[in-house]
Structures are given as structure tokens and as C-alpha cells.
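[Meeting: bench + compute handoff]

Bench side (C.D.) handed over the final construct sequence. Compute side (W.E.) agreed to return the predicted structure before the next meeting so the bench team could plan truncations. Sequence as handed over:
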Amino acid sequence: MLKFFGRGAGFSDEHNGAYFTQGDKLILLDCPLVTFNKLKKFDFKSNEIIIAITHTHSDHVGGLALTIHYATFIWKVPVTVIAPSEEVMADLAYVLENLDGCNKETYRLITATEYIYECSLHNSDESDEVCWLKAVIPTTHVKELEGKCFGYNLVIEEKNVIYTGDTSTLETFLPYIIEETVLYTECSAYDTPVHMFVEKLLDYCDFFRDNSVEVFLMHLDDVDAIKKKVVGTNFKLAPLD
């Protein structure tokens, strides 16, 4: 399943960044600065890095350009950046090209829809490998990024996986949560309109139990407070690497 370089919220020392491997691919979910810093010490055996972005807040993309540069000059492996939508792809392209000065020949930037289509062609023609990316799921976060925040539906180790990214609701994810899903959801100790408040998350306990959903909490703003709130539930903190 997913491992985490960091699981903290925006004001934490180690921002939320997850990864897993599939074959010779290292797949990152967002790329904060902590991901870049820890990747430099990583036992790197992959032939490709794929980075799926949920949204463009700095605590989620702060290490993206550095990772592209490092992969190009040190590891010498290709990087594919997956944007959840055309609009987010345009924003990422502007930042990478005009602000961070990434050479467009050193990375590939595509939408999640394009990537899923490419996987379907590859798998039907050449292998039985299941595409790890099933769907991109729009969600609600901050007003300033309305329509630009997403989560993902993944397949990891033959398990249905939901990764919410930053969200204030689980409602858009519910249609993708089938029996025995593994859910990685953000969880906030503070009640704000832009994050998933722990008390709201507790309202889903019966649903999770009835559907054998395994729940991991990430993007944590106050670990101790959240631990106290989820005592007696099956909720776990996302595993740090």
C-alpha cells in the first residue's frame, strides 16, 4: 500500500506526500519539499518517476521542479507529471516552464484522462498489468482553487484505493468506495470549511465498518488531538516511511 514521506498539513514541518511502486515505476502522490528531500536519500531502483498532482498549493507541489531537475541530472530517469485536469495542467506548465525553468524535454506533462487512456492501450496490446490509475475525482477545498482540487481512485496490490488529497467532504468519493476499499483521507483537528474535520469523518464509521473499508488518516494538523478523537475506531494514521 501507500507509504508516506510526510503526513502533515500545510503548516507542518513535513508536508503530506505519499508513494508506492509498480514494477520499475516509482509513483508519487503530490510532491512537496519533504518528498524531494527524502528522495535524495532513497534507495533508488526505479526506471521512471510518475508524479500525480492533486492540486497546486505549495505544500503539495513545492518539491516538483526540484525532483524533475534531480531526476534529470543525477538519476537520469524520465519523469511524467500527471495533472488531474486540463486547467491544472496549464497552471503546472506555466510554473514549471516560466518560474522554475524546467526544460520541457526533461519531463512529460499529461492529464490523468490521457494517462488512463494510454494505459488502456498498452495493457490491451502488450501485457495483463492493471493500470494503477482508475479515475480522477473532483472535490471541494478552498474557494480560490474552485474546480482545481481532486483526489484519485487507484489500484494498488489489487486493492481499490481512494486518495482524497485535500478535501472538505467525502461525498464525491463515496461512489468509488466499494467493499474492502483502502481509504486515505485527510483529517483535521480544527473545524474549518476547507478541510475534513475529524468529527465529520467519525460520522462515516458505520459506513466504513459495513463495507470493510480500511481508513488511513493523512494531512494531519494536530496529531495528538486526532489520536484522541479516533480512539475506539479502526482509523489508523498513514504510515510514515
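W.E. noted at the follow-up: The two ends are 12 Å apart (CA to CA). C.D. will use this when planning the next construct.
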